[in-house]
Design goal:
Layout (H helix, E strand, L loop, with lengths): L18 E2 L5 E2 L11 H25 L4 H13 L3 H9 L10 H8 L2
Antiparallel strand pairs: 1-2
């Protein structure tokens, strides 16, 4: 008595992405469709994330008083999220220093 399941590819690596029919043999399945990015799409994404990272790094450097740590952090965020981070940077005022208020100076001016 032989088991037909073990006669075919069974659970081997060669059967990945294929469905098994009633006899256990691997068949092509229309359900297992893989979408693979092409070279042009990968290149466009790489270019977009690099430009976004550089723009974001410049913004982080200028906004935080020339701190290279913040520039690196903004570069990494800009590269990972190339659409979201530049929008945040332009909303904050692109490459403008962060506005900080000195409360002591304000008290002296107002006479408090």
């Amino acid at each position: 008595m032989t088991n037909r399941y073990y006669d075919g590819p069974g659970l081997g690596v060669s059967a990945l992405g294929q469905a098994a029919d009633s006899l256990g043999q691997a068949t092509d399945s229309p359900i297992s469709v893989s979408i693979r990015p092409t070279g042009a799409l990968i290149g466009a994404w790489w270019s977009l994330s690099t430009v976004s990272g550089l723009l974001s790094a410049y913004h982080g450097y200028k906004r935080n008083g020339g701190n290279l740590g913040w520039a690196l952090a903004w570069f990494l965020m800009g590269s990972a999220l190339p659409v979201v981070v530049p929008v945040i940077a332009f909303t904050q005022g692109y490459a403008k220093p962060e506005v900080t208020r000195n409360r002591r100076r304000m008290r002296r001016r107002s006479g408090r």
